[in-house]
Structures are given as structure tokens and as C-alpha cells.
């Protein structure tokens, strides 16, 4: 500790009592001294921030550890530019027990080809990016909170074309990270996207996103494994584009276990190509389809605990895909509504499952109940369900009043129920009688085009 820092701590200690200042032999509360300590540090060294607020912009050298007392009392705050840049070009560089805040450009940026570990930190961004990392061989984020100013209460106040200069737009951006491990990471309050994973390989366990405009999570290329993550309350605000709890694009490969998707203003999950396997997914209260998938090489929704309930428009829509499996699912209470995108001229619908122009489909041990329009709507090319490789086993559809159970359509129109294609489906309630009266094809949804997708930047400041 330098002389002026020692003198400051000594005088404060006299005033408030020894031990109350957060100062010690190796702690820093002065911006100039902290900058110098970081510049002098060598790989393996630790630099410690006291229980204080240090104002300025700082760079952490590769292989050095930067620690605070705890994230409630040790704060780095920048009035302009990035608050903390982490050089992770070699070795393992660590940040722990700090709060990092910035009102311009971004709060915390990690770059380089080495390893970095960020643990027990809070990041607060008022404009631009919260936390970004690019090009790393390995990144660990453990017990990390990243927060911006957007809330459900003020969502309509932010401009539809929100930019980095006006508001915090992106919570976490990971770009080309070879091995990213996220544990108990919570993100909220951003105007474009909560978490953007671009061409990275990520496992995320615990935590999630909430109160974000645009998209809660975007995965562009690469792969992601989501375990007990919650994507909640994605907001539309004044934006013209719909809200998405999760968007997976450019061939992203997605696996999830006990993923929760709830209360999006519009869509839940949107898969655009690639592969997906969701085990024990729960999706509820979304203002549009809970899950949409198109152009998939394979898609699976399975596992005990899988439930899509009380969503609007549709619970599950799979289009132009192959190797589709739905097993051990409960799909119920889909409400009537008009799709925000890909409506295809259709009126209000409320469908449990739509399977459109897809092949190698297996629907197994699945219960569909009280879905507003129809439990299962199947559209195949040609006139033969079997030739599309569609099989049903242990499927029940239940509904009352005018609700339909299971309807199949081909090039020649409606394929009669009871003609063999629906073996393995049990119709309960009014569905058998209602299905027998259907003579005209039902409208299905269209594809979601790229013009309807959010496009946050992956570039780091």
C-alpha cells in the first residue's frame, strides 16, 4: 500500500475505529493507487480492493487476481468507458467479490485466448453492454448478477430503437468462447437481449433472465446446455418486433434439462435450424406459442415433468423438420389468440401441437387436454400419414364443447379419423364427435422469417 493510501486509511481509522474502513496492508481505495498496483502486478499476484467505491476505468493484467471484500461493499464505478477490462491472454485471470458499474459503453469486458474466472460479482450497466467476453479458451462465471435499468413497470418508456448510447442494451455477450461454464448467473433489465451466446460452447446451470426487452436468451451458432435455467418475463414494450424468451439460430445445437420458460409477452422458444433436445421443459403463461421449431435436423421434447400449459396460440409448433420426438408430455389449456409472427393469414387459434411438413415423427405417451382449437394438427405432404414416418402411441386428446382432438391433413384435404393413421390416439370428451365433423383443412401457422428476429451486436466495446 502506498503512503497516501496508508495515510487516508490511518485518518479514517481514527475517525471511525480501526477495522471499519476496509483498508489493510494490501487493499486499495484510491483510483491512482489501484491503477498503479494493477500495472505493477505480475502473474500469480492478487490485488485487493477495500470496502469502498473506487471511481475510474481499470485494466487487469493477464494471470492476476483482483478481489474485493464482498460485492456489496467493494465497488468499481466508471463515469465513462469500460469500468474494468480483463486481459485474459494467458494463464488464469480472476475477478471476485466486487461490484462493477458503468454508465457508458460497457461495464466489464474480458478478452484474450486464455482462461478467466469471475466469481461472486455484480455488474450494473446503465448504457451499452453489461459483461462481455471474447476469444477465451475457458470462462467460468459463478454467482454473477448482471443488471440494467429495464423493468416490467417501465418497459414502455424505452425507445423502440434502443441503442447503446441511450440505455443498457445487452446483459451478457459471449463471442467465440471455447468452453464457457455459467453457474447461478442472473441477468435482468436490458433493452435488446439478456444473454447472447455467439459461436460459443456453453453450459449454464442455475439462474436465468427476467425483465428484458427483445430476447431473454439468444444462441447464434455453437451449442448450449441449459440446466435448471429460467427464462421469464421477456417484454415487448414499444418495440415492433415480438418478444422471445429464447432464440436459437444459425444451426445452434441446444440441450436443456428442467428449463423453465414463462410469461413472455409473445413467444417462448424459437428454434431456427440445428438440433434441440429438451428434457422436462415447463412453459407457461406465454403470450404466443410456447415453442416453435422450423428447419430442424432433429427435435425432441421429452421426459417426466414436461408440461406446456396455459400458453396462447399454440404450445408446440414444428415445421419443415425431421426426426421429431414428443414423449411423456402434458400439453393443456392453450388459449385462443392470433400469432404475432408467422400467422399465415390464420384467424385466432389455440392448438396443442402443430406438426407441419415434417417427417420421422414419434408422438408417445402424451396427454393433450382443453386446448382451445385442437389437440394435435398434423399436415403431411401427399395423402398418406404413414409414408411421412409418423407414429402415435399412448396419446390421449381431451376436450369439450367445440374443441377438436386430432386432425390430419394431406394434399387432398382432411384425412378421415379412424382410417388407420390415428391408431395410438385415444379421443376423450367431445373430441371424437367433433373430429368426425371436420371436412375442411384447418389453418396452420407459417414460418418465422428473419425480418422478425432481434439482431443485437456480438461486438465488444
Structure summary:
This protein is mainly beta. It is built from 3 helices and 42 strands. The chain has one domain (52-452).
Explain what this protein looks like in three dimensions:
The chain is mainly beta. The protein has one domain (52-452). The strands form 3 sheets. The protein has a 25-stranded parallel sheet that branches. A hairpin with a 2-residue loop joins strand 40 (404-410) and strand 41 (413-415). The longest helix has 14 residues, at 3-16. Mean pLDDT is 92; it is low at 1-24.
List keywords for this structure.
461 residues, mainly beta, single chain, 25-stranded parallel sheet
**SS-based class:** mainly beta
What distance separates the N and C termini? 32 Å
> What's the number of helices?
3
Summarize model confidence as the mean pLDDT.
Answer: 92
The domain tally reads 1
Low-confidence stretches: 1-24
State the major sheet.
25 strands, parallel
Q: What multimeric state do the chains show?
A: single chain
Total strand segments? 42
Radius of gyration: 26 Å
Percent in helix: under 10%
Shape call: elongated
Q: Determine the strand fraction and express it as a percent band.
A: over 45%
Amino acid at each position: 500500500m502506498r503512503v497516501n493510501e496508508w495515510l487516508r486509511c490511518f485518518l479514517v481509522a481514527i475517525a471511525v475505529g480501526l477495522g471499519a474502513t476496509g483498508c489493510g496492508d494490501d487493499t486499495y481505495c484510491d483510483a491512482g493507487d489501484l491503477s498503479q498496483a494493477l500495472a505493477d502486478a505480475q502473474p500469480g499476484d492478487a490485488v485487493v480492493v477495500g470496502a469502498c467505491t473506487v471511481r475510474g476505468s481499470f485494466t487487469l493484467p493477464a494471470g492476476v487476481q483482483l478481489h474485493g471484500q464482498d460485492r456489496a461493499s467493494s465497488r468499481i464505478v466508471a463515469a465513462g468507458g469500460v469500468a474494468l477490462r480483463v486481459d485474459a491472454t494467458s494463464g488464469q485471470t480472476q475477478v471476485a467479490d466486487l461490484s462493477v458499474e458503468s454508465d457508458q459503453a460497457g461495464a466489464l469486458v474480458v478478452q484474450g485466448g486464455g482462461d478467466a474466472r469471475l466469481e461472486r460479482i455484480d455488474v450494473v450497466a446503465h448504457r451499452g453492454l453489461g459483461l462481455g467476453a471474447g476469444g477465451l479458451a475457458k470462462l467460468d462465471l459463478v454467482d454473477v448478477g448482471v443488471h440494467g435499468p429495464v423493468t416490467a413497470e417501465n418497459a414502455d418508456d424505452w425507445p423502440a430503437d434502443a441503442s447503446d448510447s441511450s440505455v443498457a442494451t445487452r446483459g451478457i455477450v459471449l463471442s467465440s468462447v471455447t468452453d464457457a461454464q455459467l453457474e447461478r448467473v442472473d441477468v435482468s433489465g436490458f433493452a435488446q437481449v439478456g444473454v447472447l451466446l455467439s459461436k460459443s460452447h456453453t453450459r449454464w446451470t442455475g439462474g436465468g433472465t427476467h425483465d428484458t426487452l427483445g430476447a431473454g436468451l439468444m444462441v447464434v451458432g455453437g451449442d448450449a446446455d441449459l440446466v435448471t435455467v429460467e427464462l421469464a418475463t421477456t417484454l415487448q414494450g414499444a418495440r415492433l418486433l415480438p418478444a422471445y424468451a429464447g432464440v436459437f439460430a444459425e444451426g445452434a445445437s441446444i440441450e436443456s434439462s428442467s428449463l423453465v420458460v414463462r410469461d413472455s409477452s409473445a413467444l417462448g422458444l424459437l428454434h431456427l435450424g440445428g438440433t434441440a433436445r429438451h428434457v422436462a421443459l415447463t412453459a407457461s403463461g406465454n403470450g404466443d406459442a410456447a415453442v416453435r421449431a422450423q428447419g430442424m435436423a432433429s427435435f425432441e421434447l421429452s421426459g417426466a415433468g414436461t408440461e406446456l400449459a396455459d400458453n396462447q396460440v399454440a404450445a408446440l409448433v414444428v415445421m419443415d423438420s425431421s426426426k421429431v420426438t414428443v414423449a411423456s408430455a402434458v400439453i393443456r389449456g392453450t388459449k385462443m389468440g392470433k400469432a404475432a409472427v408467422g400467422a399465415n393469414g390464420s384467424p385466432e387459434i389455440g392448438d396443442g401441437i402443430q406438426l407441419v411438413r415434417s417427417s420421422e415423427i414419434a408422438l408417445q405417451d402424451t396427454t393433450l387436454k382443453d386446448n382451445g382449437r385442437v389437440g394435435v394438427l398434423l399436415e403431411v405432404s401427399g395423402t398418406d400419414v404413414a409414408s411421412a414416418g409418423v407414429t402415435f402411441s399412448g396419446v390421449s386428446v381431451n376436450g369439450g364443447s367445440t374443441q377438436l382432438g386430432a386432425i390430419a391433413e394431406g394434399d387432398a384435404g382432411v384425412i378421415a379419423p379412424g382410417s388407420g393413421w390415428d391408431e395410438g390416439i385415444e379421443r376423450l370428451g367431445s373430441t371424437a364427435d367433433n373430429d368426425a365433423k371436420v371436412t375442411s383443412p384447418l389453418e396452420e401457422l407459417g414460418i418465422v422469417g428473419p425480418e422478425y428476429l432481434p439482431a443485437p451486436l456480438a461486438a465488444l466495446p
